[in-house]
Every structure is written in C-alpha cells, then in structure tokens.
Amino acid sequence: MKKKVLSLVLTAAMLTTMLAGCGSSDNGNAASTSDAPAAASTEAAASTEAVPAEEVTLKWAIWDQETTQYWGDIKDAYEASHPGVTIEMVDLGSTDYMTVLATELSGSGSDFDVVTIKDVPGYATLVQKGSILALDDYISKDGVDLSKYAGVTDQVTVDGSLYELPFRNDFWVLFYNKDLFDAKGVAYPTNDMTFDEYDALAREMTDTTFGSQVYGAHYHTWRSAVQLFGVLDGKHTILDGNYDFFKPYYEMVLNEEADGVCRKYTDLKTEGLHYSAAFSGGDVAMMNMGSWFIATMITNLKSGEYDSSLCGNWGIVKYPHADGVEAGSTLGTITGLAVTTASDTPDASWDFVKWVSGEEGAAVMASSGNFPAMMTDEVVGMISGLEGFPTDEASKEALTVSNLYLEVPYAPNVSEINSALDSYHGSIMTGEMSIDDGIAAMNQAVADIQAQ
Amino acid sequence: MRKLSRQTKRDLVAYSFIAPNFIGFCVFTLIPIIFAFALAFMKWDGSNPIQWAGLSNFTRLWKDTFFIAAFKNTIIYCVGTVPLTMIASLALAIVLNQKVIGRGVFRTLSFFPYVASLVAITAVWKMLFHPSKGPVNNILLNVFNVPQDQLPQWFTGGLVLFSMILFSVWKYMGYYMVIYLAGLQGISSELYEAASLDGANTWQKFRYVTWPQLSSTTFFVVVMLTINCFKVYDIAIMLAGGGSGELTTSATVLVYYIYQKAFIDWDLGYSSSVAMVLFLMVLFVTIIQFRGQAKREKA
C-alpha cells in the first residue's frame, strides 16, 4: 500500500512537471544562472588584469540592434573619442527585454557592465534586486547637472538615490493628417487645446459613411493612450491609489467609440492593429502617440513603405490639456543607462553612462531623429530641421514641453500596480466592467498591493 | 576489496542504464520541484537573500482577486473542456471507424487542427470571430438579424471562456480521436457478433461492448485531458491577450498568473505558492481518477 501511495505521488509529480515546468523549473534556472555568470565574471576579471589598465571592454545590454540606428552610432562615437575602450553590445531583444535582463542579472553576478533601462517597472525591479549601482557619488563628484533633464530624474529617484541616467526621452504628442482636415475644410488642431475642444474636433472630423470612413481620433490599445490623459494635471499619478480622476477620460473615449469617432478597442485587440498601420492608412484624422513615431514616419515615408498620398501630409501639435492646466504638459518615457553592481570596471562604465547621457550623446541621438533626454534648443533645432519633418511652425513648436510626467514614476511595487491597472484597463475598454466598477476594482487592487 | 555479489552487479548495470535519464530528471525537474515547494513558504525576488515567510503567501492567496479569478477560470475551463473533448473525440472515432467513403480524408481533416500551429489557427479564429468584421458575427447580423450592439463579443467578458473551451475541443479532439480509434480497433469483432446474436441493438452494443472495452483508453484520455487543461496558458494568451498583453479577470488562468507573479513582478515565493495550489489540484484529480480506475478493474 505504501509503495502504491508513493508511486502515485511520484506519478502526480511527474505529471505536474509537465505543467509546473513553467513555474518551478524556471525557478531552478534562476538559481542555477547565479553560478554560471559568477564564473564568467571572474574570468572577465582575470582577463582585465592581464591587459594594460587603459584597455577596457564594456559589455552593454541593448535591444533591437538591427533596426535601431543609434546604438551603433553611440558605440562608434564613444570609441572614437575614447581610445582603449571597446564597447561590446549584447542584444537581448525588445519583447521581454527587462524580464530577460532581470534574469541575466539575477543571483550573485553577471558580466554586464552597463545596462540600458527600458522602463520604470523594470528599473524598480533591478534597484530592489540590488543589480545596479546608485550613481549619487559619481554625479556629485563629476558635477552632473540634473536640472538639464527637465525634472524626470526626480521621478525615478529611489530613497534619495539615483540609479540611472536618462539618455533618451520620448514624450507624447498629437499626430494629425493635414489632408483630411483640408478635405473637410476644418482648421488644424492647435498647440493649445482643451480636452473638450479636442473631443469636439475629433467628432467634427468623423465621417461614418461606409466607403469614405474617417475616424476623428485613434487610441492605441495601451493603457497610456487613454488612461494617462488623467495624470497631465500634475496633481495625480498612477501611484495614487484612488483612480476616480480617470473617469472623464474613459467616458470621453468610450463615448467616441460608441459614436464611431474612433475604432473599437475590442476590434483593435482582436486584430492586433498596430498604431502605425492605423495612422498611415489615411483614415485617421488625429492620433495621440509618442515622439518615437516621428522618426518612424520620416523614415517610412522616405522609403516609400507608407503611401505618401495617404499620410504624407502630416503634422504634430502638443497634447490636449485639461481646463486650467498649462499647454504643453505631456507624458513621457525615458530610456536610461545604469552601471551594474557586478561590473569590474565601474569607473569606466560610469564614464560611458555620463557621456551618452550628456551633450555629446544627445547630439548623436538627435542626428538620427531621436529625442535625447537632455533637450536643448540646439537639439530641437536639429530634429525639426531633419528632412521629412513637418515644415509648419506649430509642429516645431510642439517639440517644446512645459511639464513632463513620466508614464510610470518610481515606486517599490510599481510593477504590480502596473499589472493590475493594465488588466482593469482591459476590463473597462472591452465593456466587461462599467467605468465605475473598473475604477473601483483598480482602487481595491492597488490598496491591496500597497497593504502588503 | 570485497567481491560484489551477482545481484548487486546486475542492479548496478540496471541503474547505470537508468542513470542518464534519471540524472536529467533530478537536475532539471525533481530538484526544481523540491525547491519550488520550499519557495512557497519563502519570500524571494531572485537576487536578495531568501526570507522565511511562513504561511503568509497562502493567506494572501484567498484575498487576491486575480488569483481567485484565475482559479475559477481554470476550473471552469477544465470542467468544460474535459467531457466535451472526450465526447467529441469518441463520437468522431466511432463514426470514422465505420466503413464510410473517404474516411481516410476525414480522419486527416479531423487530425489537422492538432498538427497546425496554435499561433496560426488562433489568428484564423480571431478573424472568423472578429467582433465587427468576422463572418460569424456578420451571419448573425445579416441572416439572424441580431442587432449590431448585441452581437457576441467572443473574446471578452463572459464569452471568452466559452470561446477558449470551444477552441480547445476543436483543436484537440483529432488527437484523442486517434487514440480512441486505436482502442476501437482493439475490440474483438467476436464480441459484437455475440451481442448481435443476443439481439442487442446499436445502443446496447455501444453500452455493453464498446464502452467497457474502451475503459482503459478512456482513462488515459481523461488523465491526459485533465493535465493538459490545467496547464492551459497558450490558448488564453493567444485568444484573449492583446493590448498590453495582460489578461483581464475574465480570462486569466493559473499558469499565466504564475508566470506573471514570477517573472514580471519577481515575487517568486508567492508565485510558487500559486504553483503549489495547481499541483494539489492536479494531484487531487489524479488520485480520484486512479482510485476510480482501480475500482473498475477490480469489478
């Protein structure tokens, strides 16, 4: 009998491994990786001792090397101005970048010296895991002026310490299709619109006639594209715990959906329509999107991938704003660089981080149409002067930001909060929950997370 | 050195044959499982020192809306999938075991969804059941005059689990059909002849010959189905994920939640406690099934 019970348990164990394989064996991986990189890093240490002190190789974690020009530009420019330093880029792919990186840096060590920080939840994870260095000493020693980063570094400061320096900074603007406005004889959107004016304009531009359909607005399926209109007043953030302030924006977008002003969330989710396909299709009058899309538009119109008769005549304006809030307040996301705690050459790594985030790095970024974190008039001039950038004054003006709020500011449990908000955003947008129920569920979920 | 007895030698040879597989099983499966068991009582983020958490991970479970939703959805999904797939595959097998014209073609066709890539066929399903452009909803709209705003939203809300079950039955029935076909071929035709002589009709033949003869096949099918449906993850992600990739409370399942807690939130202890619940569920169901089978064999 005993034998039978034992065999039963073993069988069940074997059967469950088929499914728990996902959970448990990965835990095992996490544990076993802690040994392997440790060995690798001692090897690296041995090799750096053997060569002269100035010869340094920095291993740098990045994503999408093939399709992103600036990684290579930065590497070349830095190596050219710093003889003896070699930058070795390791591409971890963009899809799960922060998850892969956190796994790589798990345990006692790894051989990365510099890592790129893609988002704030991932940053929070690495800070809590103790995988990246606090840069405060370096910052004060070298006199880095944080005020040049327009306040975003304050939003990722952890208990008074900063663990990353931003080098890229994208902010949200409103893209619009001038041809559609011209065809309807409606005035273009402006750099100073309230949400009511924006909503009215989107409705005015909408044409629901079959065959000549025009959507006044388009909202991508990301939570940021709808919900985060609410944080632009500077009084609220997604860490508040009480999300009643989202309500007017959910109402605006869901009412627009019901009236055919924008595509339905459930449709977008089912067909997985990419925002670039929506906008370049030429039936979307206005779309809120990050400034990264500017470089995409310029490149793809130039290469002919986007039909310029559909979307070639485009412009950008500042984000709409709530009543009584300064125009030019917008959402931003930063990409930063951090030095790993496992690095054998933290000084050289810091120098690289400082250089990329500084003015030299900013110039390299701007030359390929990307927005560096350090925005100066010179940089704005460089980007708006790019061939293919809209020529009107309003578009150029739209590049100056008055207040930048990070989509996700730092908090210890920001990753869990993010997951909960994402999930209920889906529930509200698909109509599974009413706006009030969804917001109540968000409030409850985040209260539970913060109570832990 | 003492000479090894013949028996010990024989044992050693046997163990050496098992060793390659068993060592692999230990390193990659058994040790991680034991580790996961222990982790369920710990707090760990993968880097910082592990802390003892006692039962706090488990007390947290019952207050966690997402866990409860995942738990409920997984059970509903299993309760729907297992019997439906079994019945569908058995029916298919019986039909395609007859001498019908083109049965080879039909067998291949029913097996095809199982062979086809999940990603590809979910894409096809999403097209078919697209809420506004899909042919299914267009037929409902134009032929059955269902009003536009009442068209079913197949991939959200209350219907998403139904869609997942339907999809799973359709995808996997071909595979279990093949297993049932093998079982059917193994039934001696003499039994049917004897039954016919006794005047049994078709239903009685099925009830008293086919079904009992297939009991061990059914046992295997049900065990495999149960295990497969508890580990559902891919179907949920492919059919109901999207947007930011998060599953809402109406579609989330346990394995997804384990992944999310472990590798997005880096709460490995809590994630392991969810995995433990899943393990106990499977263990429980498996014990019941083994018991039932043992009783039947005795009878």
- CATH-assigned homologous superfamily of chain B: MetI-like
Q: What is the H-and-E element order of chain B?
A: HEEHHHHHHHHHHHH
Largest interface: A-B, 65 and 65 residues
Outline the biggest β-sheet of chain B.
Answer: 2 strands, antiparallel
* CATH architectural label of chain B: Orthogonal Bundle
- Classify the beta-strand content of chain A into a percent band: 5-15%
Low-confidence stretches of chain B: none
pLDDT averaged residue by residue of chain A: 84
Order of helices and strands of chain A: HHEHEHEHHEHHEHHHEHHEEHHHHEHH
General shape of chain B: flat
Cα Rg of chain B: 24 Å
> What name is given to the CATH topology of chain B?
MetI-like fold
At the first level of CATH, what is the class of chain B?
Mainly Alpha
Explain how this protein is built.
The complex is a heterodimer of chains A (452) and B (299). In chain A, strands 1, 2, 3, 4, 5, 6, 7, 8 and 9 form a nine-stranded mixed sheet that branches. The model of chain A is unreliable at 15-52 (pLDDT under 50). Chain A is of the alpha/beta class and 452 residues long. In chain A, 47% of the residues lie in helices and 13% in strands. Chain B is mainly alpha-helical and 299 residues long. Chain B contains 13 helices and two strands. In chain B, a hairpin with a 7-residue loop joins β1 and β2. The mean pLDDT of chain B is 89. At the A-B interface, α1, α4, α5, α10 and α18 of A face α1, α10, α12 and α13 of B.
